[in-house]
Amino acid sequence: MSTLPPCPKCNSEYTYEDGAQLICPECAHEWSANGDAEEASDVKVYKDSAGTVLTDGDTITVIKDLKIKGTSLVVKVGTKVKNIRLCDGDHDIDCKIDGIGPMKLKSEFVRKV
């Protein structure tokens, strides 16, 4: 029998070793064999266009004119957005812009103030 631990994501017992990594063939999750790096690898780090780490509640500035689909509105360069919330997905910043309303932005088009 295998003495390897089950997969932390799907609890599959069919894990296997590949060098220093453990791999689950059912969900394709990979993690470190020592288990210490497992928690750190699951945390997503959000970075702005300059590489600065973003956190919930930050104030950001838009670095490019952003056209809003379906409308004639544009978020202009230099627009400050306060109290952002980070979320998963392609558009990873959830915010409210004065004069426009709630919307989602990509972190690659903003800079932390």
Structural commentary:
With 113 residues, this protein is mainly β. The protein has two domains: 1-38, N-terminal domain of TfIIb; 59-112, Roll (SH3 type barrels), CATH 2.30.30. Helices cover 4% and strands 29% of the residues. It contains one helix and eleven strands; from the N terminus they run βββαββββββββ. It has one helix at residues 37-41, and strands spanning 16-18, 21-23, 30-32, 60-62, 66-67, 74-75, 80-81, 85-86, 93-97, 101-105, 110-112.
Q: Using the coordinates shown, work out and report the CATH topology of the largest domain.
A: SH3 type barrels
- The shape, in one word, is elongated
Main sheet: strands, sense, barrel: 3 strands, antiparallel
SSE class: mainly beta
Order of helices and strands: EEEHEEEEEEEE
Termini separation: 55 Å
User: Nearest-angstrom radius of gyration?
Assistant: 20 Å
Number of beta-strand segments: 11
Work out the count of structural domains.
2
At the first level of CATH, the class of the largest domain is Mainly Beta
Helix content: under 10%
Name given to the CATH homologous superfamily of the largest domain: SH3 Domains
Number of helices: 1
- In terms of DSSP E residues, the strand content is 25-35%
List low-confidence stretches: none
CATH architecture of the largest domain: Roll
Query: What is the averaged pLDDT score?
Result: 88
Strand order of the largest sheet: 1-2-3
Pfam family, one: Zn_Ribbon_YjdM
Domain Protein YjdM N-terminal: 3-32
Organism: Pseudomonas versuta
Domain Protein YjdM C-terminal: 47-113
